[in-house]
Specification:
With 146 residues, this protein is mostly helical. It has one domain: Up-down Bundle (3 helical TM bundles of succinate and fumarate reductases), CATH 1.20.1300.10. It is built from six helices and no strands. The longest helix has 29 residues. It is extended. The mean pLDDT is 83.
């Protein structure tokens, strides 16, 4: 049986955390490019999994015939869905470019170059994102003819 002194000593060994302080400390932690890459990679991955389920659901009118499917697909040609599709491209693009960066860092001894690779992936990603936006919306704004 433990004495009161032993119980007090054991409690001192157990480190307790104040939840509010822990949250404040972790939210105020200065994140560098590697931390943001990790966070955004997880967020885009989860968003793409969510999109996968939504995509499968949106194909369900195929079981109801061509007319039902065409009616459903007509909804996805509105400008609102075109913007959503453009942002879907951004998620896919970031996830893919960051995945390539991760492979280079892990397999090609690129750990010392992870920050320049991160910046390069953002530059390439922004250029491709804007290029895709131009291609997607050029008919809508009248730059290219149908």
């Amino acid at each position: 049986m433990q004495t009161i002194d032993n119980q007090v000593e054991n409690k001192k060994k157990i480190k307790t955390y104040d939840q509010k302080e822990w949250i404040k400390e972790n939210l105020s932690y200065k994140k560098d490019s590697g931390s943001w890459a990790w966070i955004l990679h997880r967020i885009t991955g989860l968003a793409l999994i969510g999109y996968l389920f939504l995509h499968i659901y949106s194909l369900s009118p195929l079981t109801e015939g061509k007319a039902a499917f065409d009616a459903k697909m007509q909804q996805f040609t509105t400008p609102f869905f075109m913007v959503l599709e453009w942002f879907l491209f951004a998620f896919v693009l970031f996830h893919a470019l960051n995945g390539i960066r991760i492979v280079i860092v892990d397999w090609a001894d690129g750990a010392k170059y992870h920050k320049p690779l991160y910046r390069l992936s953002w530059i390439v990603g922004i250029i491709l994102f804007l290029g895709m936006g131009f291609l997607m919306f050029s008919y809508e704004i009248g730059v290219l003819t149908k």
